[in-house]
Give the backbone structure.
Amino acid sequence: MKKERSKKHRSLQLARVAVQAAVFALFVLLLFGTHFSGKDYIGNVEVFFHFDPLLAVATGIASRAAFPAFVLAAITLLSAVVLGRVFCGWICPLGAVHQFFSWLFKKTKWLRPRKTVTGGLSWKYLVLAFVLVGAVFTLDLVGIFDPFSFLYRTFVTSLLPALGQGLSLLVGFLYSLRLDAFGDKLAQFVETLTINGTFQQGFFIGAIFFALVLLNIWRERFWCRYVCPLGAFLGLASRFNVFKLKVDEAKCIKCNLCTLHCETQANPWPNDAWKSSECVYCETCAAICPTAAISFPAKAAAEKTPDVDLSRRKLLLTSALAFFAVPFFRISQAAKRASEKLIRPPGALPEPQFLRKCVKCGECMKACPTNALQPATNQAGPEGLWTPVLVPKIGYCEYYCSLCSQVCPTGAIKELTIPEKVNVRIGTAWIDKNRCIPYFLGRPCIVCEEHCPTSPKAIKFVMVETKRADGTVATQKAPVMDLDLCIGCGICENKCPVMDDPAIYVTSVGEQRSETNRLLLPTTTAGTAPDIKN
């Protein structure tokens, strides 16, 4: 009988691993599916985010809006209410990553649980409180801590580029060994992955991920225990779920193995110490029990379980910190005057609304076919950290592409059709005559005009005379900007042959989404006041 019951829980444990592997594979499949495939439109590759109730609630509060697509999050929330935190233990891809590394560290003997751990569980609830209180005052920081956004952003900006670099090195190594056939096949495979290989914060974002992974050496599933606000949110919803842990006192030998190896510090033994809000139903305790004393029978009646040490004083202090953090996030220069480098993708909402909706997930960066969209550093102040900005030195906004607007899970980037997108102005290009080859050197160059995608072209030519160092005068065609036609796509800056600091550059001034970030050139006619649009 004991053996049969042990097999049952072992089978459930293997089933959980299989489900986690399948969900993670789906996550990776959708991740690689987020790219330009030659078609104008992309599928619902962002659907994973719509199952996240924390994103739905926090972003909805911050933006004062509801998102119909997030109705799917009700499935996750309902599963927690009825079944407990099965989402964390069976579905969440970031939870699967941490569980895998915890298992790996156990196998290598780096992680050796020797004593029962207590305390610390309240931290993720405090993170949740901080995020939600900030959202009440329109500060949306959920994307920094949300597990889906965190994992996707890490893959897009760090792990995949590193993979691409590694595979490219391997291709070069194969060619050096004159294994051209293998090198050609691998090179073709790398090309089909369509990995954007350059991100300005890739190392930093990757370092955060690996630091959290290594913390699993200290505590199993460290992120899930102490940091994850989604886990805290589902924990609150799961306190009165149907399935309750039961320890058969007649069989229990009080070995404490179940509590010692509990992945989330739910304390299966003694029975009255079990925390249902922390249990992710991984089945480890039941599978490891040498006497098959642990089971999870269904009980419709609610039972009182021990609370996490979360005092009212801690909640009030965290709420106060969140309230006072809001102005500190907004005292940067970005709050007074838009940064010239804050070039948002086409379809981005006006900046205040954009910041309230963007969850910093990196979907748009993965979809961008030219690698132009990058995680912001200080362009939008602390509030805009890791939100997407266009960096023309790295890539440009492809004229007939609107993929970034199609994959945004929260509507921070309004979905645009191709005919709508080509008319959206995201900035303005300017010419530095002290660096432009025809102006400064008197030599011919028409690269920027050749690549300008607008029709008619926003870059035109005038004849200029340039005095050279030897005293001669050269007459060349030199570019000038038609500000009424430029949309700020950045291809001119990206293709400019002046490599270190291009002679033509794009700034955010003139962006269509802003009523204030404009080049104000009032014209005065007799008897009328200047017409200035604010």
User: Anything to note?
Assistant: Residues 2-32+44-295 form one domain. Confidence is low (pLDDT under 50) at residues 524-534. The chain has three domains: 2-32+44-295, 339-421, 428-507. DSSP finds 22 helices and eight strands in the chain.
